[in-house]
Amino acid sequence: MPPPWISMSVEMYSSGLDAIVTLQSSVSQLASAQDGAAKSASPPRLDWWSIAAIAPAVLILLGFLFLFFYGVFQSLTDLKFGRPLVHFIGLTNYAALIKTDDFWNSVRATLVYAGSAVLAEAVLGVALAKLFATEVFLARVMRPVILLPLVLPPMSVALMWTTMMDPQSGILNYLLSLVGMGRFAWISDPATAMISLVLIDIWTYTPFFTLIIFAGLQGINEEIREAARVNGAKGWATFLYIELPLIAPYILIAAVFRLIESLNQFDIIFGTTQGGPGNSTSVLSVRAYITAFQNLAFGRGAALMVVNWIIVLAGAFLTVKLWRYVRPRVS
Amino acid sequence: MRLNRSGSTNIALNLLVGICALTLAFPLIWILLMSLKQQGEVMAWPPKFIFSPTLENFRVLFDAAQAGATSYGTIKVDFLTPVTNSVAIALGSVFVSMLLGVPAGYVLARRDIPMKEDIAFFILGFRFAPALLVVIPLFNVFQTIGLYDTYLGMIWVYQVVTLPMIVWLSRSYIEDIPKDIEEAAAMDGAKPVRVILHIVLPLLKPGLIGASLLIFLLAWHNFALGLILSSTKAPVTVALLKLLNPGVQFYPVMAAGLVVTMIIPVILIVMGQRHLERGLTFGAVK
């Protein structure tokens, strides 16, 4: 049984996990073939040593699964800090939420942030992967630099960019002034805060797409490219009609991972704007934190996180659908 | 790939790669420079690229005895405690995860147990766990049972991040070891425990070192769990945010703090680039 944040329905389960299984097993058919042989050779019997070895890990994670359900339950109560009696109030928290503009503003902010960041990262990720796949001198030397943004703590990334985006003394405004542009308010203006955050996300996670697409590009048989060239395909045509369909599943798998993580993004947004200025970057996870731990309304905060989780599921589900659509055309 | 590339294309491509690499590396270089500046130099316009470096900011961070007395005002920071906390929590998490996760990974790779694939995906699913939804109830539980603000509690809750990762990574590394070696040893009469201790573990060592580097990094990154479930045992990421006081912006001191949190990951890249790439993209590509 998978945990509920990746499978709401059976179909989500089969399609979502299938996606990952298939991609992995295509890479490692050897291992799965060996498993099959082993299974048919010996009849299944209970192996107590194996169960003892796996039990502690599974039990700890089951504990977290229980907490997850407990959190969903809390979203149906009026739990507040210091309140001795807790009542089950059904969907009242949700009903109260959807009546407020703040809530819909948060939903919109979450979708805009994740949607635009993932789209831009996918496009830039392909470009960066293609560029480094040329294997020119600097591409070989600079390869480890791709990893750099991914290994930094997201909170450090957030504060690093806060410093650089300072309207008065920030280096970004200086660089803009070099090309003759005026000062930009970045994260301190409601009108530009969201785009600034998306830029930070793009800088940080484009390398994730690049690494995965790189693996996809290396998997393409050189003979296929050669055949296209012999048949007179120009560079762009080879890319559009030969390479892109072959790496599309990799792009979409990376997109599933990034979409889930950026819909849940907390560190970068909390570290830079804490949801402000005004309400402009108040995504659901940040609003849930503020509701639960600053206003101490745990029930209401949990309800916000449940809504966030449903959006994550829906987003992952749609991307996996898309993945299943592009996959058959490849094989 | 394309060997017949012309010279000018080659230069253009190198130039493009250089620009991209600079875009990725420049923010870090800039922060490093800033951490060596004085407050006045940081606020200068246009920004200074040439200045006489000082280690003053790092002294402010770590010199607990003289905390508060800086050349440009008073700030109270105690950065050594959060750094120690982060190291202790991360090392503890790595240790517990390895102890529990590697046996599980071995079973999932080699043994036949009921619902094996279901269990494997149950574990992988935690890569997408909505941390806040788990932490909101956990906050009350921790307060009740006294685990709030303890290393033990923090290490336990960090398992939600590190344990699934180590199970899957060790499973994939074990699958890379040819099964024949184990079978041959078993055929020669070696007991299963001996096979694991003397044959599997030595072969697995490089993979496990790489995996532990990666999960150390994941633990080092974490912010939300420490923010909510600890106060005096808060990790360095939480302390970092506190350096950014609204109103008074001691950017150079914060830059020094950033350098401290970023130096470990950068060292890890140098130590195990290959393993980190495998781990960071894990689940999407094998």
UniProtKB/TrEMBL annotation, chain A:
Membrane topology term: Multi-pass membrane protein
Transmembrane segments: 48-73, 111-133, 145-164, 171-188, 194-217, 238-260, 302-323
Entries under InterPro entries matching the protein: MetI-like, MetI-like_sf, Sugar_ABC_transporter
Domain ABC transmembrane type-1: 107-319
Subcellular location: Cell membrane
Main location: membrane
Gene3D superfamilies xrefs: MetI-like
Domain of life: Bacteria
Keywords associated with the record: Membrane, Transmembrane, Transmembrane helix, Transport
A UniProt-annotated Pfam family: BPD_transp_1
Family of this protein: Belongs to the binding-protein-dependent transport system permease family.
Annotated protein name in UniProt: Sugar ABC transporter permease
Lineage per the UniProt record: Bacteria, Pseudomonadati, Pseudomonadota, Alphaproteobacteria, Hyphomicrobiales
UniProtKB/TrEMBL annotation, chain B:
Ranges that cross the membrane: 12-33, 87-107, 119-139, 151-169, 250-271
Pfam families attached to this UniProt entry: BPD_transp_1 (PF00528)
Gene Ontology terms describing biological process: transmembrane transport
Domain ABC transmembrane type-1: 83-272
Entries under InterPro entries matching the protein: BP-dep_ABC_trans_perm, MetI-like, MetI-like_sf
Cell cycle as UniProt keyword: no
Keywords assigned: Cell membrane, Membrane, Transmembrane, Transmembrane helix, Transport
Membrane-topology annotation of the record: Multi-pass membrane protein
Localization (cell): Cell membrane
Protein name: Carbohydrate ABC transporter permease
